[in-house]
Amino acid sequence: DARVTQTPRHKVTEMGQEVTMRCQPILGHNTVFWYRQTMMQGLELLAYFRNRAPLDDSGMPKDRFSAEMPDATLATLKIQPSEPRDSAVYFCASGLVIASNTGELFFGEGSRLTVL
Amino acid sequence: TQLLEQSPQFLSIQEGENLTVYCNSSSVFSSLQWYRQEPGEGPVLLVTVVTGGEVKKLKRLTFQFGDARKDSSLHITAAQPGDTGLYLCAGAQAGKSTFGDGTTLTVKP
After folding, report:
1. CA–CA–CA angle A8, A55, B30 (5° rounding)
2. Closest by Cβ to B92, choosing from A102, A107, A110
3. Within a 10 A sphere around the Cβ of A16, how many other Cβ atoms?
4. Could you write out the DSSP letters of every residue in A21-62?
5. Separation in Å, CA of A110 to nearest CA in chain B
6. Which residue stretches of chain B have pLDDT < 70?
7. Using one digit for the tens of pLDDT, what is the confidence trace for B23-38?
8. Measured between alpha carbons, how far is B99 from B32 in angstroms, rounded to an integer?
9. A63-93: per-residue pLDDT in tens?
10. Which of A62, A67, A72, B26: CA 20 to 30 A from B18?
11. Contact indicator for A79, A18 with CB cutoff of 8 Å
């Protein structure tokens, strides 16, 4: 049963600490998205990759956030240093995009981050 | 800037009632998707609409894509408590999906 796997599921940390979230997309999917979900802002697109190449990270605060895809089975989202306003649920989703046509996005269960 | 606006934001109804959720934008999308999210989980796809004016039915759910491909609606007939959840629309453009704020639906038995 193919699914997107995210770790950790929950993370509580103190302001200023580094946080790394990991995502294993579904094998065969060529596009990986990172979203952040809060009550106030809803589901915001932070960054996405196609065939491991970063396409758009304009939704991400560049000074503290970084997203990478070191290989086809791993995408990472790093926050350094973390701040209380970064508290949210971070979702990874993968999908198959062909000729700019977006198919179904499969979401992981999310990483709930709390920054104290 | 949120490109997709959903209304209403919250909806609480009794079992058996009908409801409609709207998703509006000033942008044209190549396709529009509706997702449903339950607490503690990620969104799950319900339907994708591609053609302007397209109507798709999924049991008691009816989805419509506007003629200009800028807006969409989700109609639920005879809602059941199992329909409770967060309903999200997502517009796709150039391989990127942008989500609306969501409509939180509560169906009371």
Report:
1. 105
2. A102
3. 10
4. EEEEPPTT--EEEEEEEETTTEEEEEEEEETTEEEE-TTS-T
5. 6
6. 1-2
7. 999 999 889 999 999 9
8. 10
9. 999 999 999 999 999 999 999 999 999 999 9
10. B26
11. yes
